[in-house]
Amino acid sequence: MGRLLQSPSRRFHLALEVAAVALLLAAAAAAPPPPPSLAPDEPEEADILRYGTNVLRSTDTLEQFNTEPVFPTLETLFLLGRAHDEGREDVGIKRDEDAARALYERAAKLGHPPSQHALSTLLAGSAGEGGEDVEAVLYDFFASLGGDPLAHAALGYRYLYGIGTPQSCQKSLAHYYMAAREVIADLHAEGRGGVSRNVDRTRLSVRFVAGRRPASDSDQELVDIWRAGAEIGDVGSIRVMGLLYQHGARGLDQDLEKSYEMYEKGAELSDAASMSFAANLQMRGAGTPIDYKAAYKKFLASKTTHVSLNGLGYLYLHGLGVKRDVRVAFDYFEQARREDKENQNPDILFNLGMMYVSNTVELDLGGSKTTIISGGESVTLSAKDTKKALAHLTAAAAMGHVEAMFQAAVLKADEAEEPLTATRCQSAVSLFKNVVERGPWMDGMQAALRRATAGDYGGALVLYSRLAEIGFEVAQSNAAWLLEAGHCSNSGGASANSTQVNCEKRALRLYEHAARQGRASAEMKVGNFHYHGKAGLPVDYEKAAERYLKASDANYAEALFGMGYMHQMGKGVPQDLFLAKRYFDQAALVSSDAVPVARLSLVLLRVQSAWMRWRDWWREIRADRAAGDGDGDDWVDGSQKEEEEGEVFSTTETVSLVALVMLLVMVMGERERRQRARRRPEGGAAAT
């Protein structure tokens, strides 16, 4: 052993290891001491980023003597890459896609699953024409083997639609299931207690429409009114503020602790609804420590509400703070269902559904079936009844209950119950996909909106693009909207694809994705790309008309108007003024915003119809004269036919229509001028 230590080669390697350890210790020594509540092995992200340079130097040294870096070092590489990807001004890191990609690649090659998925997202999002999809799929495949839930979600989405992979519902189902499990685990993490996350679904194309007042303005006014009411002790306002904090609505961030405080304040004022909400959070341990006995007392004190009846049923079903009694639990659930006259509480349906799933809730019935008298009704409860379970769970899932979605999907995918048909598979995948789109990563939607509102469109694009790659349609549409507006030039990095054509190619790819998922506005956008020849595409009116027709099937007003225009002008479809009129009329029916434009188009259509008849009439006269037909009887007969069909307009009517068109154009121009003048003092108008 002594001779081994004296070996020059061994001494050299020991010296290198000592140097590496010294660098790591230097990085640790330079960092400020963590707060007492923070474990030493869990440094804050800002500290990791601030002292990331020392960590990188340590990693370089470790790689020189072929030693695999420890996982926290890989995590640091990933966090630094993400900081460069998003831009973190708070720690002095500017957005730089090239630097982010280099950092992701280093960690990805050493087997770090989140970095592998992050690299996949960059590759897929920057391809434009899909040329790097194969490499993106490969990175996601390895990341999924490492258990990364976002990689599973991305592969589930790809297999669902056959994007860069063969289309396979069963493979999509398997990947979405793995990602959905992580969402359920997060749902029951300490402090959440099963309360689902709020997911922002704001569409930038709607929020930033010129001249339209942002919805956030009116939301803020309402919140201010309710907050003022809560401060003076109005129980209705207190309860509303509690609900807003619980669900993160009306522009407020989700805050379960504040929600519980509001409910407690209402409970002190003897508001039964507030008391039941407070007990519900207390039972779950959401925003406050779990206290089953205190929750039980509050439920009893507010027993008139369906929330309390459901809570009592849950406590008895699981024996939490009370002796377990399945029959009493079932009776409380049934009472809650009857009390919930407006069918607003999906928790009731979920609990009733789970009582029929024996592999989730063990029923102490003393046999396979039992009859319970509840509210004068005889109900037969079996140890397992998939049909009844699915009926309740599907109803709860339709109301947005995340756990109900998951459990319903599991039952539909259970081949032990029934063979997995294509219909059952698609239904299960759809439910799992909905669960995945309510995971902790969806907080990125709110962060992206904040950046877009602040004018940081490049940062918003990065965040939306991440969620677009896992198949979230709102993120796809928002990222495409930013790209089409040319904001990809804000992504940073020397190799950023920031030309207008590349921006449009990337936007087209995302619009195609959103259109696959049934988004009519995205279908319309793809049609516009073909119509105008954007993203390097040739002008193709036929393909544009095909896309408009698909979007019009969903009664999308803009697409209906587009189809009317295409038939009016005969572009990509046969010219047909009657069909054009029908499309314009339909557009006005489905959207009040389309009424002025549709009316103007109908007037123009009548003018065009009159002009075409006059033109045809004049051509007939000239043809008759050229042929030597002096009497002109043929054209008179033709005119009489058209009169019978209601096609002929008098000269006076035509002149009147032309004058009306000019008047409408003047009115609309004046209206637009006044709107611009009204918006100018407000400043900071959103991007168009």
Provide structural commentary.
- There is one protein chain.
- The protein is mainly alpha-helical and 688 residues long.
- Among the domains are: 15-175, Tetratricopeptide repeat domain (Serine Threonine Protein Phosphatase 5, Tetratricopeptide repeat, Alpha Horseshoe); 591-677.
- The chain has 33 helices and two strands.
- The chain has helices at 2-6, 8-30, 45-50, 52-64, 71-86, 97-109, 113-127, 133-145, 149-161, 169-187, 204-207, 215-231, 235-247, 256-268, 272-284, 292-301, 306-318, 326-339, 346-354, 386-398, 402-413, 422-436, 443-453, 457-468, 473-484, 500-516, 520-532, 541-552, 557-569, 577-590, 595-627, 633-644, 651-679, and strands at 369-374, 377-382.
- A two-stranded antiparallel ribbon has the order 1-2.
The oligomeric state is single chain
- Using only C-alpha atoms, the radius of gyration works out to 32 Å
Which fold does the CATH topology of the domain at 15-175 refer to? Serine Threonine Protein Phosphatase 5, Tetratricopeptide repeat
Percent strand: under 5%
Overall 3D shape: globular
Record field, number of beta strands: 2
Give the strand order, joined by hyphens, for the main sheet.
1-2
What layout of secondary structure does this protein have?
Blueprint: H1 2-6, H2 8-30, H3 45-50, H4 52-64, H5 71-86, H6 97-109, H7 113-127, H8 133-145, H9 149-161, H10 169-187, H11 204-207, H12 215-231, H13 235-247, H14 256-268, H15 272-284, H16 292-301, H17 306-318, H18 326-339, H19 346-354, E1 369-374, E2 377-382, H20 386-398, H21 402-413, H22 422-436, H23 443-453, H24 457-468, H25 473-484, H26 500-516, H27 520-532, H28 541-552, H29 557-569, H30 577-590, H31 595-627, H32 633-644, H33 651-679
Antiparallel strand pairs: 1-2
